[in-house]
Amino acid sequence: MYPDHRPRRLRSSPAMRRFVAETHVQPSQLVLPMFIAEGLDEPRPISSMPGVVQHTRESARAVYASAAALGLGGVMLFGVPEHKDATGSGALDPDGILNVALRDARAEVGDDTLVMADLCLDEFTDHGHCGVLDDQGRVDNDATLEIYADMGVVQAESGAHVVGPSGMMDGQVGAIRAALDTAGHDDTVILAYAAKYSSAFYGPFREAVDSSLVGDRKTYQQDPANAREAIREVELDIAEGADIVMVKPALSYLDVIRDVSDAVDVPVAAYNISGEMAMVEAAAAHGWIDRERAIDEIVLSIRRAGADIVLTYWAAEIADRLRH
Ligand code: PBG
User: Considering only CA atoms, which residue is closest to atom 12 of ligand 1?
Assistant: First the structure.
């Protein structure tokens, strides 16, 4: 007649629920991705990512400072160059937009929060691919590695504490690690986008970086059908010297985050990407979901799946909410 076990007892009040909560989100676990564009007079809103802008160098500075004040884990910078070319040469130019933004960020925050750089060519190439192309228009893995290696060194010299190779070329972590070490940057951390899937949810990001990509990235990013392959990618990256491994996107890949965090003993990050935030913002704008509750639940779910670190466009908002 009466149940012997009453789990509801532990849900009876806010204080009780707080007391038994298994998963917590802290500002230090959150990383804010930011876009810094060349040649803008003022920040430009990204229509498919409400609340997110392409920053000018100046408007970004205030955000670096507030990221540090909020105690965020770091900022992940993406550069949007004015001119793109076949080899993405802007990525290697010390005066290119990403590299000057790294210098600005480091000057602003010092060591108070971590300055991170996306290490990939797609923002810099006129064809929009993550690497250079061979004479048949295919992405040339090994030619790309040489550029990534140089890019890692330029980013470290520009002030990046952490570089984040995201192009899914084979051997990219090893090539970048060797170049960093040779150049004396053995303390620069590699956060490897290790298990990165070819996803429809990157859509809004293409607007954010003015991408000129025609076609897709299916020959280098992972097939959404595969989970075991993520473990292989992660293990290779760790063997090549990755300090932190990342799963991306997050929400359609919570199982992969769980598998990876069970399999490895390095910190695991997950990237709550542009399309994942756009869905929430769009539904909330219609009044169809409670925006703040949805955001908090999403980030909690990514942490619960096993991610130590979450990259999210809502990082500052969440950290601010945690203070009150
Ligand atoms: C590659 C890169 C991408 C994202 C982060 N790094 C785009 C892609 O692989 O197509 C996507 C981030 C997002 O969608 O929020 N430089």
Answer: 273
